[in-house]
Write a structure and sequence with these properties.
The chain is an alpha/beta fold and 471 residues long. It has 2 domains: 3-245 and 447-469, 3-Layer(aba) Sandwich (Aldehyde Dehydrogenase, Chain A, domain 1), CATH 3.40.605; 249-436, Aldehyde Dehydrogenase, Chain A, domain 2, CATH 3.40.309. Helices cover 41% and strands 20% of the residues. It has helices spanning 3-7, 37-55, 59-75, 77-88, 92-116, 151-162, 176-187, 206-211, 224-236, 259-271, 291-303, 323-338, 370-373, 389-397, 412-421, 454-459, and strands at 17-21, 28-33, 120-123, 129-136, 139-143, 166-170, 196-198, 215-221, 240-244, 249-253, 281-287, 342-345, 360-363, 380-386, 401-402, 406-408, 428-429, 444-445, 448-449, 462-469. Strands 12-13-14-11-10-16-17 form a 7-stranded mixed sheet, sandwiched between helices. Strands 7-6-5-8-9-19 form a 6-stranded mixed sheet, with helices on both faces. It has a 3-stranded antiparallel sheet with strand order 3-4-20, with no helix packed on it. Helix 4 (77-88) crosses helix 5 (92-116) and helix 10 (259-271) packs across helix 11. The longest helix is centred in the first third of the chain and has 25 residues, at 92-116. The termini are far apart.
Amino acid sequence: MSTDMLRSTVGGEEAGESHSINPVTGEVVARYPWLSAPQVTAKVEEAAKAYAAWSASGLDRRCHALRQLGEVLGDRQDTLSELIALEMGKPVARARAEVLKCANLCFWYADHSERLLADELVDLGGDGAARISYRPLGIVLGVMPWNFPLWQVLRAAVPVIASGNGFLLKHADNVQGAAFALEAAFAQTDMPKGLFANLNVHRSVLPRLLSDPRIAGVSVTAGVAAGSAIAAEAGRNLKKSVLELGGSDPFIVLADADLDRAVPAAIEARFQNSGQVCIAGKRIIVEKPIAAAFTARFMDAVGQLRMGDPFDADVDLGPLARVRLRNELADQVERSVAMGAKLLAGGIVPSGPGAFYPPTVLTDVTPDMPVFAEETFGPVAALMTVDDAKAAVELANNSDFGLCGSIWTGNIALGQQLADCIESGGMFINKVAISDPRVPIGGIKQSGYGRELSHFGIREFCNAKMVWNGA
């Protein structure tokens, strides 16, 4: 997406609406008119007033409000999980886990923000001493995706708000119900009115928002094209940006790995949320001595996965979020098969309504194929065999992306050594990649820059202000 596309309008920025479409049936379940220009201006003005009060408040007040938010989310877990399932097709049990993870995120920052934002003192010897404090910057604009409609938003917003900033959300069009539900949850806390607000607008409004002096920066989770266009617009206005732009994470299984752990982990890494996870293990790289055994057990496990209505308690995979995304995924698979990949399972678009796509496994995959070179955002596993660990690292690094990855081995020292050699923002040894408030998440290369979560995330949109006291 170019900056010109970002600025373009479709039918006029004030004339349209967002649609929530049930991905099981294809039916529109709700319509949300875009905000008019005066309404957007009013939201920004309200956020600016809220920020002025919030940034002057003490950490005790902020942490108390975060605890309130966590409690509200927990109280509303049934409604919120059903809304997630309805709007983007996530199985209800997984949706509930997302809601509770968000609540725990609020509690974690409520418990730790004082420590994470504490002043740092620097002894300068005979030159005196310096104090570094972390001061808020202003209002942060969040451009967020649909795949974790609550977690992705709060992963960015909670640290930003804990540090004293405000947060305006531009959410994906198809999950506006979740966006407004989050706005309602924030309204139940003691945070100033408008500190967190949902802006249901067309993308053409983003340049205007980024040029507003009250907007201090932007946090984006999106595809590479959209993210780079927004970052370019932020740069034009000298606004800080944090980008998480997806990935094609390697999932490396060495010859000494415990397959009783590695196979279930590979299933989880690739097929959770119907494969619609930025840090999913999309490229499964297996050392040759165990390739046959791993593949056989992996295929048995794939055969046990159940696809269907996300409101069915027995379902493992719901539909993809949109038919267009399903069709793009199917095209990636078809092009890869035409280039020589072998289809072991799935790969056929089901007949009937909805955005369903079956668990799909490809082998004989090479780096020039779409399922290797591109991000596959759906339930498609690309299996590759390598001769040794060195070749596994080389194949893992043969990617434009660098978000996360995992290594499965019985030799932890070797795993640590290989992890240091892989070009990524994070690596996991004998563990499925996750995002957790205790550690940072973010990427390099085409996966973006900046970090969310931990002390890195809470300080991303802070002014690290230094005051030097002379001797």
